[in-house]
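Writing this down once: the sequence line spells out the residues, with the fold written below as integer tokens. This is how one looks:
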Amino acid sequence: MGNAVETVAVPEEDLLRADLYDFLGALLSNPPSGELLGKTAALDGDDSELGQAIGALARLARATKTKSAEREFNALFIGMARGELLPYASFYLTGFLNEKPLANLRRDMLGLGIERAPNVFEPEDNIASLCEMMGGMIRGRFGAPADLAQQRDFYNKHIGPWAGLFFKDLEGAKNSVFYAPVGTVGRVFMDIEKEAFRMAGETPA
């Protein structure tokens, strides 16, 4: 039944947006596998700011081994007690984990028919999950593909207020090497999304 839902026509430009959200979600949810590093290494950039960031990421992926990527991921996001960065909306918006932004997200997830996967134990307001949710909404993985207003509302409430700052922090983090251009890709993409909503007459808060 889920596959039938995904056959609903989604504009090509929106599929590309969903792909990028899903790509960021995959890179930020777990250390990248050899397969993901290989796919990243095969990406092509262009002369745009986003294209240049993707090109830089692809070049680094070609020189990155899975073990070093895993060490970097752990230093950034896990660590002995905690990683260098805490990629959660609650932390960025309130300074604490498991606060009101998480409760608000869980309420909206319920309304959208989005459930946390049984093998995921982190709070749902982490950046990887939010990227995966946005990609899924655009593609229609949770029902009918989300319209522009639904996408805008979700972005404004749960991604736009803090994700750009997180990605900027990721760019400049002490432990970021492979993940520095991931931060650039994310930061530039968040700016593009914000501007696209504005130009569509849907101004982010």
About this structure: The chain has one domain: 10-199. The chain has eleven helices and no strands. Confidence is low (pLDDT under 50) at residues 1-6.
